[in-house]
Amino acid sequence: MRAAIGDTLHIHTNHLGTTEHLGEILEVRGLDGAPPYLVQFRDGTTRLLYPGPDAVVEHPTAAAHPAPVHAPLSPAVPSHSPAVSSPQQVAVSARRIHTRPGW
What we know:
The protein has 103 residues and is mainly beta.
């Protein structure tokens, strides 16, 4: 399981009478997107957890978060120039993984 800050953790349930849990991932404390995750659930509680087999990480779709529009650097630079970042590069560089020494 891999996650990034801003992804949604969806914990399904297999018990009757219990609800599914949805929460936003605030911190990723493992290496390369691995657990544990600091998650804030919709009811306001925040928990540090290792998701079980009934949990799924849902990544935001491109339609939900439109790519930012960049102005051209100058009229002489064509839009296909490698100097202009692609929307994917911008989205990846905006992700941060919080780490603390000793954790």
